[in-house]
Inverse folding.
């Protein structure tokens, strides 16, 4: 059977178009969006092997009362730069007799979205007695306890506390992680800039207080974090962000699971 030159050229052209479409499709599948790329992240325990993990959002003991979306494993991820700085913090604290205990690190955007949905459901107050007994849930957005974006999602923010290697217990900070209220503020009952305990608990709506020792414990953690490149948050004693974070404008979406 003879094939005309015109027909042969048409077939070749069609095959070239199909090949181009295949290559384009393959390239599209291989392309990773910036917010999906976890290549700049590490597992914290690969860098700080003696860090203790209690990843609250993987379990049910948190202010929502259920596992949070995007937490597939009870691990902690950070950008390489933040993890390296945290290693310096850990080395500093080990010399003082402490280990670090981590509650949360990188948080995927879907986890933040889960918080937003929960906050919008004002009837769901399952964990109110444990985390926000002094607040009406309806004020959580207005008072910025819940927001649509979180520094955790950029990968260089961490929530942590101290573990005493002598007593083999978590250090008493005078309040639980994720307590919604002024009692969680670094300046509650003292001046975090000078480290001075004042005992001023006037900001507490229920007249709660912390002791001089509890305030001093908060300052041990704060000073170590600041010495090694982290900056604090003025509403949470446990929350710190790397000052020179590598992804200041990227909110990542990949899930929390071991790398």
């Amino acid at each position: 059977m003879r094939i005309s030159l015109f027909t042969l050229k048409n077939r070749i052209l069609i095959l070239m178009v199909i090949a181009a479409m295949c290559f384009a499709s393959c390239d599209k599948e291989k392309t990773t969006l910036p917010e999906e790329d976890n290549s700049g992240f590490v597992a914290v325990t690969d860098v700080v092997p003696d860090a203790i993990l209690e990843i609250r959002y993987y379990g049910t003991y948190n202010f929502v009362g259920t596992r949070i979306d995007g937490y597939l494993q009870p691990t902690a991820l950070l950008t390489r730069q933040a993890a390296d700085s945290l290693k310096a913090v850990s080395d500093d604290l080990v010399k003082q007799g402490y280990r670090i205990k981590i509650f949360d690190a990188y948080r995927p955007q879907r986890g933040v979205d889960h918080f937003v949905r929960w906050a919008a459901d004002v009837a769901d107050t399952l964990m109110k007695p444990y985390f926000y007994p002094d607040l009406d849930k309806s004020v959580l957005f207005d008072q910025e306890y819940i927001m649509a974006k979180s520094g955790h999602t950029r990968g260089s923010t961490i929530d942590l506390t101290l573990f005493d290697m002598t007593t083999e217990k978590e250090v008493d900070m005078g309040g639980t992680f994720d307590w919604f209220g002024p009692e969680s503020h670094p300046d509650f009952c003292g001046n975090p800039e000078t480290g001075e305990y004042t005992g001023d608990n006037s900001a507490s709506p229920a007249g709660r207080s912390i002791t001089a020792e509890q305030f001093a414990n908060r300052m041990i953690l704060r000073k170590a974090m600041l010495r090694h490149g982290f900056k604090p948050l003025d509403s949470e004693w446990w929350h710190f962000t790397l000052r020179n974070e590598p992804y200041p404008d990227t909110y990542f979406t990949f899930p929390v699971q071991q790398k």
